[in-house]
Amino acid sequence: MSELFRFGVSLEKDLLDKFDKVIRKENYSNRSEAFRDLIREKLVKTEWQKKGNVAGAITLVYDHHKRDLLNVLTDIQHDFHNVIISGQHIHLDHNNCLEIIVVKGKPRDIEDLANKLKAAKGVKHSQLSMTSTGKTIR
Ligand code: NI
Question: Under a CB-based contact definition with an 8 Å cutoff, are residues 48 and 107 in contact?
Fold first, then answer.
């Protein structure tokens, strides 16, 4: 654990009021913790612009009755087996499936995979949640 360092931040009162209102709603106990999260978020965003490894999760919702869709999604995932750590398939109802694909690797490969899955005909919703391997942030 590195030592804590204090620093002052100057900003407009109304901006701070709005910020306080938002973080209160999100149950932050103090501004410091909210600032830490904002900084970490910025660091993760920066990680995704570099060439090092990142982690993430891709969620997909689709109708498994759609012709060929399962084959297409499986083929795409096999092409990216090097970045896929695991996958979970949940049968939401008679028609709809939710798939969660956990990924780790180079940002470009992961974004490429996410874009290809999203573009598959019959996928209703897809989202890439970008996070960190945790090695570069505390
Ligand atoms: Ni299913």
Answer: yes
